[in-house]
Amino acid sequence: MQLVSLAMERYRAFDGPQEVRLAPLNIVIGRNGGGKSVITRLPMLISGGVDSYRDAPLALETDGLVHANRFEDLIYQRSAQPFALGATVSHDDVEYTVRVKLRHIVENYTLVVEEFSATSGDNLILKATIDEPDQLLALSPRYNVSQGDSGESLTTTISFAGIFPFLFDNKKVDKSNLDKVRMLFRDTFESPAYLGPFRREASAISRMPRQDIASLGPRGEWTLDFMTNDLLRGGGHLARSVEQWFRDRMSGNAVIVRREGDFSRVFVEDPARDLDVDLSETGAGFGQLFPIVVQAMALRSRTLSSRIAIIEQPELHLHPVAHGDVADLLIDTILGVESLCYLVETHSEQFITRVRRRIAEGKIDSKQVQIISVGHKSPESEAIEPLRTITLDSSGTPSSWPLGVFEEAFEDLLQIRQTLSKSHK
Q1: Which of 60, 121, 326, 353 is most buried as measured by Cβ atoms within 10 A of its Cβ?
Q2: For the CA atoms of the chain, what is the radius of gyration?
Q3: 184 sits in which H/E element
Q4: Cα 188 → chain centroid
Q5: What is the per-residue pLDDT across 311-348, written as a single tens digit (0 to 9) for each?
């Protein structure tokens, strides 16, 4: 299974319908407040909706990530209109698409699935719609259901598990294909590997990790516990691969996780001074980078089984030289893990330049990378575009480029030159 696209309408910063086809590596760029995080965090929201044990369609918090304080905050301009979400996943060269329209019911502060559809390629599997407004307030609302290509329509009450129909009171509904789609979506969206923009610095010593730890936490707060679990129960392969990456890429400054009895500590090896320094006593850069490297190596070893990996601002607190090393880390992970989809939100020109360089060098195919521009000016009309997908050719050259992006330094240099020119007159 692989995530192929995300879709939304009247969701957060986006009014009209939007669909984003995804590559294995998706680089999301945009101005602050433009909606980048809306795109990068959408798989996390959907992952809560495909949980077969969830009664509500969506949850405002998923794996520690808070999406909003109220359901109405999910709706464009908090309007009374419904909003829609969706995704497409592929399996055995067939694409399966689910779209769901949700309405916030102010009277009882709940979300109701107003419309659900599932398709296989161009073939309808099932579509369920509430056509009568009074049914939105019913405890067991009635839906008009169409299925297959028969064109037959029937009426039934439906109980939902997350965003998926689960129980029907009409035995004429064929659930077999729908159950297959539910399983595909659950396997694709189960536990996305998410790291937010402010990673928490590792503590000096770990606690005893639970055996079933399966996440680094949205701020990387469980990274050391995750590593300790690997040392105690997994043979330490993950710790060794993380240590080697830092030694190779960070001028010999290896980040070392050492087991001390039942616990672990993280040190930064300083070869210049022949010292090992506690990670918490080093600069912020190592602490911010540590969860990203652990995430990548865990995905490669399948210690993390996620099919979706999300990182916001991987360059945070890093010297620009290291931005390219992070890009290489993610490229190597994409090449080493089948069916993985990375969503990376970044402000780093160096990160993007390194990716373009690797494409030109032939290390990664240009079809495996795309740039998603959010809220930038169109190069054709100068109008603000909600979304633009930018592809890259075999030389790493982008198909288009939004106005004003990464031109700030050039504009400042022009202003300096003009100022100097005036002062010498």
Answers
A1: 326
A2: 24
A3: helix 176-189
A4: 12
A5: 999 999 888 889 999 999 999 999 999 999 999 999 99
